User: Fold Halovibrin HvnC from Pseudomonas chlororaphis.
Amino acid sequence: MRQIIGFILIAVLCGCSQDTRQLPAPTITNIVQSIDGPAIAAQLSTLYDRKYANCNNSNSQPAFLCSGVIIRVTVKDPDNKYKVWEPSPISVKQGMVTFSYLRSDSNFIRFAYGYNNGYVLFPIFEAPTDKSDLQILCSYPYDAWSHTRGDTPCAAHASYPAQSQLCQNAGVTTAEQWYEVWKLPGGSPNQRQCGFDVRDERNALAGPAFYQSIRARGLPNPRNENHNEIQIKTWCDPTSANPATSCKQSFPANKFPIMAFFYLNGSAGLADAQYNQRDFYNSTNPKVIVPIIRLTLASSGTTFTYIQADQAILP
Assistant:
C-alpha cells in the first residue's frame, strides 16, 4: 500500500502521559515522514493470510513479492559498528543476509537463537516508491544452518555436498522430493536439505520453486514449529570506506524497505525495538518514524498489533 506513508506536519506537544512500565517517554516530533502504525498492522495481517502460489498468476513472480511477512530477528552490535538493519560483517563476508518468511501456510512459533525482536521488510510489490529492492536468492523450508555452509550464498554443506546444493542441481523440484531427503534417518536434516533457487534470473522457474518451499512445510514434520530461512543478497557494507559499497552512501537508511520493527508478545524485546526505532529515526534525513508492532506467534496463527504506548517516537 504505497499510500501508507505520508508527510505529517503537526505542532510540538507539551507534556507526555505517565509511562507506567518505566520505559523512556516517547519523543514527540514536529516534521517527519511517518508510517501509519495501525495501517501497517492491518497490512501485515493481510499479507500473512494470503496463500498465493505466485503473484499476478505469473510463475516469474514468486509469492514473496506480494504476500507473506519477510522478517529478521536482530541483536544490537555491542561495538555499534553497524545498525540492526544493516548487514553484519559476517553477512558481508558470506554475501547474504538470512531472514524468515512467515505466512498462514508457512507458520512457525520459534525464531532463531531465541531472539525476541527485529524488523519486517515491505514486499517489493507493496513497497513505497522511494525504497530500493532487495534480492531474494533462495528459500529453505527450515533453518539451513547457513553459518555452517561456507562463505557464499545458498551454499551446500560439506557433509552433504550433493544433497544440500541448490535443489534443481540436486534433482529436487517438488516439496515431496525435498521431503524424501529431509526424512532420511541419521545425520542433520537441516544441513542436508537443499535450497530452492528463487533468483530473478530463473524467470518462470522462480515462482514454482518458492511455492514448493512453502508446500514442504505442510508435510508431516515434528519440527514444523521451527522457523524457515530465506537468503537475501547483501546490499551494502557498513564498515566499508568505499562509497560504492558503504551503507551510508550507497544504501542510506531512507532507501531501506523497512516496514516495521517488532517485538515478541510476552518477551523483554520491547526496549530493544524502541532503541531500534529511535536509532533508525536518527539515521534518516528527512526523518522517518517506523512503527513498532507487537508480534504474537502461535500454532493457531500469528497476530500483529500496533500499540501507541509501545512507540518510542510519535508523530
User: Anything to note?
Assistant: The chain has one domain: 5-314. The two ends are 20 Å apart (CA to CA). Residues 265 and 296 are 5 Å apart (CA to CA). The chain is about 20% helix and 20% strand.
